Amino acid sequence: QVQLVESGGGLVQAGGSLRLSCVASARTLNNYYMGWFRQAPGKEREFVAAINWSGVSIEYVDSVKGRFTISRDKAKNTVYLQMDNLKPEDTAVYYCNAARRSSQVPWGQGTQVTVSS
Questions:
Q1: Across all residues in the chain, what is the average pLDDT?
Q2: Quick one: which of 30, 63, 94, 101 has the fewest CB in 10 Å?
Q3: Cα→Cα distances 42→85, 93, 107, Å
Q4: Segment 1-23, tens digit of pLDDT
């Protein structure tokens, strides 16, 4: 079964940057539309960004447009999320998975991002 491992989170001040990585245990997901999601305390998990297999088609939730950049390296089975100009409201556990629910695999542990004001 494909496993997803997220890393790169941490504690950062508002205005700072972090780069998240998500490594898949198999190349299966290389052809999938992959996404980053986040879940803040007491809230539902929400979509953040997605990228298609070629990297040509990309979408973001409005609240992160212009600040976050999603990318992927198929040779490394890895999807990245560069997060700049972070805000306290970005504080959440970040997860990656297939963007389409019908293609999703079991969720990983996620990586905690905490932005202090």
A1: 95
A2: 101
A3: 24, 12, 18
A4: 889 999 999 999 999 999 999 99
Longest dimension (CA), the chain: 40
At residue 63, φ and ψ (nearest 5 deg) are: -70, -15
Q: Give CA–CA dist 108/13, Å, rounded.
A: 26
Which regions in the chain score pLDDT beneath 50? none
Kindly report the number of other CB atoms within 10 A of residue 67's CB atom.
Answer: 15
In this structure, the strands spanning 111-116 and 10-13 are: parallel
Nearest in space to 10 (alpha carbons), one of 68, 91, 95: 91
